[in-house]
Amino acid sequence: MSQKTDKRQQAKWEKRYIDKKTAWDRGEASPALEKTLSKLPKPPSKVLVPACGRGYEVVSFAALGFDVTGVDFAPSAIHDLKHRLSHRNLVATLVDTDLFVWEPNESFDVIYEQTALCALTPDLWSEYARRLHHWLRPGGVLVGMFMQTNRDGGPPWHVSLTALQDLFPEALWSWSDNLNEVIEHPSGLQERFITLKRRD
Ligand SMILES: C[S@@+](CC[C@H](N)C(=O)[O-])C[C@H]1O[C@@H](n2cnc3c(N)ncnc32)[C@H](O)[C@@H]1O
After folding, report:
1. Whose CA is closest to atom 13 on ligand 1?
2. For 91-139, how does the pLDDT look when each residue is reduced to its tens digit (9 = 90+)?
3. Domain that holds residue 191
4. 103 CA to middle of ligand 1, Å?
5. Same domain as 188, residue 137
6. 112 lies in some domain
7. Residue 53 in contact with ligand 1 by CB distance below 6 A
8. Are 104 and 97 in contact (CB under 8 A)?
9. What does DSSP say about strands 136-148 and 190-198: parallel, antiparallel, or unpaired?
10. Which of 91, 107, 13 is CA-nearest to residue 58?
11. Phi and psi at residue 32, in whole multiples of 5°?
12. Average pLDDT over residues 179-196
């Protein structure tokens, strides 16, 4: 299902970057990336970072030799990321587009999803989960950092374990054993840190 770019949402996110209202932005790669490396296929496997924002993780994956693609529809974030990559002489594919319009002509070995789902209104979650499944090759790994706010409304929207189990059913995904691992976020919130494998 290909949709049109949601210009209203795009403008809202772009404005957050321009106004520097970016509480989610760590200013550096999440410690989750380092923790997850041993579970991933080795470089130069193909990594997708959807809704990458300023993309500190895109830079880290590129520095480690992965073939990395970052997607985000906020031009300022992509512009900033481009600049930091070139400053370090690193290469990544950057796509400035809406994730609900994007139709890549390749599949990925790894998807590193960090505070992307929680940025989307819940009515989009099942289509987003369908896309994640489609973008990943069979046997590929989805690393997810899902924001825990324990309150109504968003963004960031609270992503409960029950919601995740509905979005990523056992029939399609093999779940890691540890469902309670969390990563502290500088905003004071926690992210549930889960690794899933796409079944064949
Ligand atoms: C909470 S931020 C997270 C950014 C980054 N993953 C991080 O952890 O710093 C959410 C990001 O999703 C992007 N975004 C939201 N909806 C999107 C969509 N439909 N298509 C592409 N990017 C989107 C926003 O522009 C923003 O950069």
Report:
1. 51
2. 999 999 999 999 999 999 999 999 999 999 999 999 999 999 999 999 9
3. 131-200
4. 17
5. yes
6. no
7. yes
8. no
9. antiparallel
10. 91
11. -60, -35
12. 92
Residue 52 lies in a domain: yes
**Nearest ligand 1 atom, CA 102:** 20
Distance CA 199, CA 156 (A): 29
Q: Are 101 and 136 in contact (CB under 8 A)?
A: no
> How many residues comprise the chain?
200
Residues 15-37: pLDDT tens digits? 999 999 999 999 999 999 999 99
- List all residues 6 or more positions away from 102 whose beta carbon is below 8 Å from its beta carbon: 71, 95
Domain end (from 106, 122, 147): 106
Question: How many percent of the chain have pLDDT more than 70?
Answer: 99
Asked if 128 and 120 count as a contact pair (C-beta separation under 8 A), the reply is: yes
Query: In this structure, which long-range contacts are made by residues 75-79, counting pairs with CB atoms below 8 Å and at least 24 apart in sequence?
Result: 75/14, 76/14, 76/17, 76/18, 77/13, 77/17, 77/52, 77/53
